[in-house]
Amino acid sequence: MKSNQNPADSLSGWPKSLEGDLVWSGTGSSPAEPHILQLQPVDIAEIEAALKAFKELGFHGDRVSCDTFRLSDDLRSRLREASRDVHNKQGHCILRGLEPNKYSAEDNAMIFLGIASYIGDVRGVQDSNGSMLSHITVVRQWKAVPDRLRHGVHTEQGMPFHNDMGTSVLALHYRQCATEGGFTHLSSAWTVYNELSVKYPDVLETLATPDWPIQITKTKSRYYLAPLIEYHNGKLVISLDPGRLGRQTPNKEYTATTKYPPFLGNGNNNDNNQNKDKCDGASEVPILTDKQNAALDTLNKVANQHRLSVPARPGDMLFVNNWALLHARDPYMDGGANDRRHLVRVWLHDQELSWDPPDSMKTPWAAAFGHRFPEAVEQVGGGPHRRNKVNHKYPIMPAVDYHVPKYTAGSAAFTIDSSDDEDDSHLQ
């Protein structure tokens, strides 16, 4: 499998520079500022009343929606305006004013889902186990597992600029911030594009050429080729996670039921060897070229130069246009048992406002949202992207035991479609 497109053709018809509200920088003489929607006491009382009314219905988390988590016309209007800001203005919004310590873990989850429903009315599936919530944290017991066997979001390490390949809007609820570090940074892909166009046009061509291998499973072909940026319907669209690109090899310590502690160590277990034999197809996937790796380095450097740091507080909800902005994370240090960085992630799509993904970037998006848009699954050939039949799960807290995943590639917890024998419950 290879791309037949000439790199010079990749940018044909694209603008020399982009204009609009999505072109901003967090640095320079007139730096952009975080867009914050501050909730007032009357708003919080209204949200708590909506939570109480929803709980009285006795519904599962999958039933949280604008219709079942009812807010006043005034607050509803402000949240929909925030959604328009996320989709078509500065690309992000921070909702501030809630105190997570006032609520149980379950109530925090329901409040987050209820408010998020007004930003995007469809939630995406984040793994083949059906998880609709993911916990970005490090549970104390997980420390027995080496960082290399945990997903990036389940370590205290920093992460480069990327976006979550598979969602229209990234939603994060900050239940607790780190004792030190762990700051989230945003960077506009539109601003990065403009600088690359002037200073690094060859890098722009490399990013736009549809020859980037993205590994998948449960298909005859173990990967597909795609560009990382596209100009689609008059908008620049980016879908990029450095850790998900190119060949990914399975962890030799993985088995479908392995959890830590204890640590299996050298991977000589028979089940591990059998599993490794099943996964040798990964060798079919191309590795990234030097040119592609250099392009990723340059993109990360430029994104970092224009970054906007998010001044997150416990209780904040951050909503990000995942097609237009990149995000990164600083390394961090946790404190005691009750002082650990803990974010909850939801993937959203809004049927009125969200951007239509280009066909080249639809495969991971269809995996997340195919349960609501089956036609998208058919467009990318079905197969591993059919998650519409799994039961949706809303784990309100992270699991205590950590199951070693088959793949730890990628910045998001879900990276490669799981093989038939893999248990993804550890991603809850």
Automatic annotation (TrEMBL):
Start and end residues of each TauD/TfdA-like domain:
68-347
Q: Which organism is it from?
A: Magnaporthiopsis poae (strain ATCC 64411 / 73-15) (Kentucky bluegrass fungus)
Give the start-end ranges of region Disordered.
256-276
**InterPro entries in alphabetical order:** AlphaKG_dependent_hydroxylases, TauD-like_sf, TauD/TfdA-like
Among its keywords, does the record have Oxidoreductase? yes
Q: Which UniProt keywords apply?
A: Oxidoreductase
Can you provide one Gene Ontology molecular function annotated for this UniProt record? oxidoreductase activity
Note the PANTHER family from the entry: FAMILY OXIDOREDUCTASE, PUTATIVE (AFU_ORTHOLOGUE AFUA_4G13850)-RELATED, GAMMA-BUTYROBETAINE HYDROXYLASE-RELATED
| Keyword Oxidoreductase annotated | yes
| SUPFAM superfamilies associated with the record | Clavaminate synthase-like
What name appears for this protein in its UniProt entry? TauD/TfdA-like domain-containing protein
